[in-house]
Structures are given as C-alpha cells and as structure tokens.
Request: fold
Amino acid sequence: MRHVLIIGAGRSASSLIRYLLSKSESENLHIIVADLSLALAEKKINNHPNATPIALNIFDIEERKAAIEKASIVISMLPAYLHIEIAKDCLQYKKHLVTASYISDAMMELDEEARQNNLIFMNEIGLDPGIDHMSAMKVIDEIRSKGGKMLLFESFCGGLVAPESDNNLWNYKFTWAPRNVVLAGQGGAAKFIQEGTYKYIPYGTLFRRTEFLEVEGYGKFEAYSNRDSLKYRSIYGLDDILTLYRGTIRRVGFSKAWNMFVQLGMTDDSYIMEDSENMSYRQFTNSFLPYHPTDSVEIKMRLILKIDQDDIMWDKLLELDLFNPDKKVNLPNATPAQILEKILTDSWALQPDDKDMIVMYHKFGYELNGEKRQIDSKMACIGDDQTYTAMAKTVGLPVAIATLLILNGKITTPGVQLPINKEVYLPILEELESYGVVFYEQNMPYFGYNPDLF
Reply:
C-alpha cells in the first residue's frame, strides 16, 4: 500500500482526511494521521480500516524522522514556521511534500536540492494561497493564449459567515484564526499599483479605503487592501501590468466599524496592559478614553469616535458587551489585541448549527486586438457543518487532490513550487467543481481607472 502521512489533524484537515479516506480503497492508500493529540487523530479517522492514528511530537526528532521515513508522501498541516524541519527530513528520506502555507525563504533554499532528488515540494495549495493562484492563472493563461495583454488584475478573498447564520450587526463571525483577524493589516503599509502608479495605505486609514463587490445570489461585499499586493507580480508573469491589487472580503459596513478599534488602539499587540487578568470589559474600554470627572464611559466613547446614539455604529459596539462591568478579561499579561480577541470571541464564535462561507472574486482587465475587455470570476462556497466547514473544504481539498496527483505521477515537475502550472491547476480546479467549488466567469465592460485621477 501507499502510505500518506498527514501531520496535523486540526480544523483544516477534516475535508483533506475525508477525501483521502474516500479514495483509499480504489487508490490503494493507507492514511496515517499524526497529531500531538492522539484523541484528535482518532476522531478524524473515525475507525476507518485504511487509516492509523498516531501521537506525534514533531520536536522529538527520532519520532518525527521515523514517521516520515515510512511514508510514501508527506502532508504538513502544521503552522507555517514548522514546515521547514519536515521538509529537511523529506529531503533526507526522498519523500514528496505538500503544504498549504506560503513559501518561506527557508523553504525556497531547499529548491535546488529538491530538484536534484526529483522531489516535489508543493506549497501554497490551500485556499488563499492556493485556489486563488490556480483560478487566476487559468484565466490569465487563457487570455495570453489568445494573444491578449494583461492590463489589470484584482483578486479578493474572504472567510465569512453563511447567509443563514448571519445574525449579528457586524455580519461577521470567526471562521478561522481570530488572532489573524484582529492583527490584519498591521506590519507596514498596504502597497499595490494602479494605472502604473504605486499606491500605499498606512494601517491607520486601511479600513476606510474599501472597494465594493457584488456576487450574484449573495449580495454586496467590500474589500480592504492586503499588505503586499505586489508579491506575485513576477510569479504570475505580470511585471508590466498597470493595476495589481489584492484584498480581503467582508460584508459592507464591517471595515468602517472595525476602524473604530484601530483608532482607539485596541488592536495594538506591542505592549502588555497592567493587571489585565482582573480587568473588566468596561475597564478595558475605558483604558483608551480620556479621563472626565462626570462623563460616563459610553459618553466618552461616543464623543471620541464622533458617533451619535442612534448611529448603527453605536449599536454594533453595544452588541459586543464592551461596557459590561461584570465580565472579566481573565488573561494575564495580555496585549490590547489579545483582550479584544477574547471579547470578540464571546460574540463572534460560530455556534453549533452555524455554517461558514468562502467568497473569492477576481477581475481581469486585458487588451485584445486593440479592444480593452474584462472578465470577472466569482466563487462562493458554503460549509456543511462545524467539522466540514467551507474553510476546511477549500483549504483541505486542493491539498488532498494534489497529493493524489503527485502519487499517481500526474504532477511531475520537481522543486519547491506553488500551483501556477497547468499540470497542477487544471485537474485540481476540475475536480474541485464536483465538490461545489465552482468559479463563474463573466465578460464585463472594461472599467479600468482614469490615470489623470488615480
């Protein structure tokens, strides 16, 4: 049998494991699910005859190497910074490797050795990064094959709550790592290019510079800029493109409301708040407001944010219980961002019957035969339940499909790579459609931008 080692049995591995188990009989696979928690690994395989759960501490070098040596191929679903040691072991034992994470500099340094050993180290094969690369390159390659010249590429993605579970004023719940949501946009100005001009948005104004999107059947959305939209310009072969922008999707109104936290300083992760463990939610909120001998915390909040009592922004703040004097933070030595995450998790955690949703939207502007044209490509995917979420599906299925294609010799190009070649993206996108991950492409009038204004 061919042994597939999956390291990490967390939330994103659910659909990945289910897919490979469903193929195990026909494809002669034995799935080894390894996690620090044996109970979690056991739960994910559910006594399947073609699977084995094992407890694995990846920091135990001998234990880790022994597991990798026995495998035919290795999938790492660990946090990105932990992939590198797995990758080095895969080189030592001549094993292919698949991850959903961004290619780090350390991983890229292994490219030549991987090529020399005819090994495929496939990275960025999840949702974002992953499905975004594949769906974009498919259309870009089709445009180029007709002789078209790319003028504009905009790409947006967001993890949201499904419409049937959207029942708070923020139109948002945590469907993935809450910390990443709280810290989004920090670490430097967002940068992109519009009509050949480089643009920069500092963190302080990021959430007031949004673009609006419409997805048929799902309504209107907004998107704020990702930190570095230019990272894939050369990889996509778009060095000469006039406009390149990548953004994160939210429901309309979210960014304006989130900006209140940014302006107050509640998303700051650079310092620890004194006695945070015993602090109430109300005290936390008051920490960012000026002292006043008579004004309440609520009045000070409205004054500093310039919002009226009948403003929907005020209702959004009230919904989060920010002014509750009885709820305690219960986090020792916590930063403002960590406390805000705790408060938001109270209100934004997915409930047992809730479903999540993934929305992805690409815009392709190009010139063909002297005429400027545009294609819009849209995808919306709803999760099944709390185990097989839309996020788990769109992250895990591409990983699983790529793994099987590598095992079966359908993907052959060696080296450290991301899924931008036809041998990778065509079969994966085709199979994803059967699981409800479908992109609908629409010819649109070319919008572009006025260079005199932008």
Remarks:
- The first helix runs from residue 14 to 27.
- The chain is about 35% helix and 25% strand.
- The first strand starts at residue 2 and ends at 7.
- The chain has a mean pLDDT of 94.
